Amino acid sequence: MLFRLSQTLTDRYSRTFARTVRATYRQDEAYASTPLGRLWLWTALVLLVMLPLLLPPYPMYVVVLIAIASIGALGLHLLVGGAGQISLGHAAFLGIGAYTASHLAGPLAAVGILLGGVLAGLIGIVLGLPSLRIKGTYLAIATLALQFLADYVFKRWEAVTGGIRGRTLPPAEFLGISMPNADALWYLVLLFAIPLFFYAKRLLSSRAGRLWYAVRDNDLSARLSGVDLTRAKLTAFAISAFYAGIAGGLLANLYKSITPDNFVLTFSIQYLAMVIVGGAGTVLGAVLGATFIVLIPEVLNAIVGAFGPQFAPSFAAWRNVVFGALILLFLILEPLGLVGLWGRIRDYFRTWPLPY
């Protein structure tokens, strides 16, 4: 009698709150498949809108940084975790988006950010051409060449980039509303972030996402199965670069001043660290990885402040050491990243305290 009662409660709990078995593509592409999931989704959206009212200025500034980094990291997640293509030139695309947005700042800030993403996406198609012939380490070197080329252009093409002095942007405006600080700019970030994140979620669950997974797992088998490798790889590079360009434009409007030093190779390595630490190929992994990597300098700043200002010069070196150690640590102990760790915790509490 008790066993049958517990079984009935478990089944009812599972049908109401736990993920159901997805038998159709429509169910598989759903953003939230349970009533509880839909409740959490709407709650999260409401909290995002109200966030500037709940946080002080500096924590809000850090949250905006995390949101922008999440957009850029999501682009690299789609490329590396989705299509299995390695890129070390991600910072170049952020720079392209940032410098494009700097020429259409102020009242045209939203247009400049969007055009920066489009231009970065077009250049991403060009970068993706080597992936049709090479892969792995050789492809990483090819993308590294773009990073060095972009760094040279950012410093030398003074008419467009301002050279090593960079460019200064006026405060962004949208629909006549000025956005002079992070609190106001948050809503412009949400204007781009929410559609991009929902699109990425749907994309990974769609036919195009499954084609990317096939290319990632074994491109030769995917080709023999009828997958158009040229279209799949170039699309992955274009969308990844588009996301990076949008993130770069938002970053420029947040900083209000950009220089070539904002888009060096170290920046690309940071985004690669976000992919590895967060967990490649998932939308949640982009957010977790970006949050983790952006908060590391803040934690190190607090530690340096606690020990004294004499340790400040070693801050940058220690930050790079921490980034490298994190990549190695997650590769060895948690290949799936923070999203894998979160998945195990979620699965444990999903049926707790029911017997199965």
UniProtKB/TrEMBL annotation:
It is a multi-pass membrane protein. One of its GO terms (molecular function) is branched-chain amino acid transmembrane transporter activity. GO terms for cellular component: plasma membrane. The keyword Endoplasmic reticulum does not apply. It is found in: Cell membrane. Its main location: membrane. Keywords: Cell membrane, Membrane, Transmembrane, Transmembrane helix. The chain crosses the membrane at residues 39-55, 62-84, 104-129, 136-154, 184-200, 234-255, 267-300, 321-345. PANTHER family: ABC TRANSPORTER PERMEASE PROTEIN, HIGH-AFFINITY BRANCHED-CHAIN AMINO ACID TRANSPORT SYSTEM PERMEASE. This is Urea ABC transporter, permease protein UrtC. It comes from Calidithermus roseus.
